[in-house]
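for the record, two folds in this file. i put them one after another cuz i was lazy. first one right below, seq on top, structure tokens after. the second one comes after a little note so u can tell where it starts
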Amino acid sequence: MGRRILNEALRAIVNADRRGKATVELKPISTVMSSFLKIMKDRGYIKGFQVYDPHRVGRITVELQGRVNDCRALTYRQDIAAREIERYRLRMLPTHQWGYVVITTPDGVLDHEEAIKRGVGGQVLGYFH
């Protein structure tokens, strides 16, 4: 999956959220993008999302709720070990109280808290706060 596609989708979410929009439509889509959105939904940053026609070009409609301050995907490959996740989080996120680093691991796409709990590392996809 192209990381640029993920980054463009996340930037579209941030821009629509700043303009006060209720929904945003993302095209093209990927399974990694829907996993990233699922983590954002589970953590309460978006209300929900709906995937339309996932086997073709498809699109995702995301319902916003105004909590996203910043959301980015790394366009380069960043490998991270399980013991380094907390140090990386402190460096990337602006504060200790909120925000999540999203990592793709052998167990699937996880946020940093779940990856630390399971003791797995992987590649950093991006972060949101």
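(here's the note) second protein begins now
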Amino acid sequence: MAEPSAATQSPSVSSSSSGAEPSAPGGGSPGSCPALGAKSCGSSCAVHDLIFWRDVKKTGFVFGTTLIMLLSLAAFSVISVISYLILALLSVTISFRVYKSVIQAVQKSEEGHPFKAYLDVDITLSSEAFHNYVNAAMVRINRALKLIIRLFLVEDLVDSLKLAVFMWLMTYVGAVFNGITLLILAELLIFSVPIVYEKYKTQIDHYVGIARDQTKSIVEKIQAKLPGIAKKKAE
């Protein structure tokens, strides 16, 4: 007589244990990066913090360094910029090496090489890490090739027309700006637009929603008038 009571109790225990499992659907804590795995969260969150100026000194250093690089490339050739950068780095390291050698000779100390801690660092790339990088790159390359084939072979007429209009607009942009100028503008936008959007998110989302609705209605009208598109939707 005791066995049926245990059997009736077991479903309740299993249901309570199964009910406790879905408490963390994403497998992450509330403070973790949303919709990101454990491996990609670190790098993605680092980029997010960088462009949102979470650490002002770090973001300022990266922003200033890359902007100076791009401005230098706009004024000089790539070979000249790389050569000047290498010369500047060598000037700093050689000067510091000579300075430390003189100090050690005067003080008669045996501190050794000033860069010994950095020289002993293992910077070799393992075969496993190399294959991981190659596999990740191949996934992106294959995805890009599929997209290119789909656009140029007109799998979707609307998407191909969007690309054609975008390229036509880019001809006017290219007539005004060169590649380096576009990179400078892109960097200024990357380091300014996210923080502005974060501050005025509500107002921006309102106007973006209006523009998106109007664009969607225009695209639907175009799709309705294009031959083959309406038939494809009906199927």
